[in-house]
Amino acid sequence: MNRLVPLSLLAVAGVAGVSGSAFATQYLTVEQAQAAIFPEASSFKPVPLQLDAAQMKQVEKLSGLPARSVSWRAVAAYKDDKLLGHVVFDEVIGKFELISYAVGLQADASVRQVEILAYRESHGFEIRNANWRKQFVGKTAASGLVIGEGIANISGATLSCAHVTDGVRRIAAIAQVTLKK
């Protein structure tokens, strides 16, 4: 009888451990993403990124998407005293779970690099592939940041592709409105 209790507890623990979040993978920390996007940077400084009502309308017009939030987490990357660009952090829903990602932006608001920080879905993790993420490089809110018009879809990751692409387009618009030098 004593053997049945541990086995049944083990079985319950095993079943309880299987959930949507069992597939969650943390690929990069915020600090690792910053360093991957701007390896030449000597420092990163938080940037207060708050949109006012007029800026939110501009973002919506540029991106074709709701601005979604007035407050965004961003850092500026510097090499000594020279601004290299910015990294903006965001999360979008995949199919059911959140995808955490970072968008590196050049000083002209074009996309420098996209990094996936955490992926929590059971399918669609292929969006982390370097070749898919490279499609964003050099694009702006007004140029090619749409699935089928500059960004390829991945079969089995359709919602993840669409939602990350929309998120990057939104961030590119935010950068154009607030961060472009």
Describe the structure.
The structure is a single chain. By secondary structure, this protein is α+β, with helices and mostly antiparallel strands. The chain is built from five helices and six strands. Strand 5 (98-106) and strand 6 form a beta hairpin. The longest helix is centred in the C-terminal third of the chain and has 22 residues, at 158-179. It is globular. It starts with a helix and ends with a helix. Mean pLDDT is 88; it is low at 1-21.
Describe the structure in brief.
The chain is α+β, with helices and mostly antiparallel strands and 181 residues long. It contains five helices and six strands.
Give the overall shape: globular
Distance between the termini: 73 Å
Order of helices and strands: HEHEHEEEEHH
Average the pLDDT over all residues and give the rounded result.
Answer: 88
Write the layout of secondary structure elements.
Layout: H1 4-17, E1 25-26, H2 30-37, E2 43-50, H3 53-63, E3 71-79, E4 82-93, E5 98-106, E6 111-119, H4 130-134, H5 158-179
Antiparallel strand pairs: 1-6, 2-3, 3-4, 4-5, 5-6
Key traits:
single chain, disordered N terminus, about 180 residues, 6-stranded antiparallel beta sheet
